[in-house]
Design a protein that fits this description.
mainly alpha; three-stranded antiparallel sheet; two-stranded antiparallel sheet; 9 helices; 5 strands; about 5% strand; elongated
Length: about 170
């Protein structure tokens, strides 16, 4: 089984060091077949995700704005056995356009790199880093935003560079 790097300091340094390389890689994959890329990324994501324990990191919960839907706010209230208005006041911010998000970074529900509401967590949290979804090529710029912070993204991208012939 391949070894994957999960050293957060190393990954952060590589994120800075490889900015230009990653931009060239973005241009490189823009010329590749989208379905081929999705198959490659999905396979790599399955492999890397199985090998990396997210509870050793928690950067997604420490660094990202977590968007939630009104239905998820209701679900959170039920999960916490609290009134929805109390949950909204304590944990949720709402934009003038009606978009809801967790009102702190890091997330209120992160403790010792673990989600305290894991069973009731939000879709955005369940889906992060979104590498299992179709349309990787169109979303790659957004994926690169997490390259220097997420061990899964870092390792998938580095393996993808090799598998596509970008880097040997």
């Amino acid at each position: 089984m391949e070894q994957y790097n999960s050293d957060l300091a190393f990954i952060a340094m590589e994120g800075e060091r490889k900015e230009e390389e990653n931009e060239f890689f973005r241009l490189f994959i823009s010329k590749l077949d989208g379905e081929f890329l999705d198959r490659q990324v999905h396979s790599l994501n399955d492999e890397v995700s199985a090998a990396i324990d997210c509870t050793h990191c928690g950067n997604c919960c420490k660094k990202l704005i977590i968007n939630v839907t009104p239905e998820e706010v209701k679900g959170l209230a039920g999960y916490l056995h609290q009134a929805e208005d109390k949950v909204r006041a304590q944990y949720i911010e709402e934009s003038s356009g009606g978009q809801c998000f967790i009102n702190t970074i890091p997330c209120h529900f992160l403790s010792e790199n673990k989600c305290t509401i894991y069973e009731g967590r939000f879709r955005e949290c369940r889906d992060f880093p979104h590498l299992h979804k179709p349309g990787f090529k169109a979303r790659f710029l957004g994926t690169l935003l997490h390259y220097g912070h997420c061990p899964i993204v870092y390792n998938v991208v580095e393996r993808l560079k090799k598998e596509t012939g970008f880097a040997e």
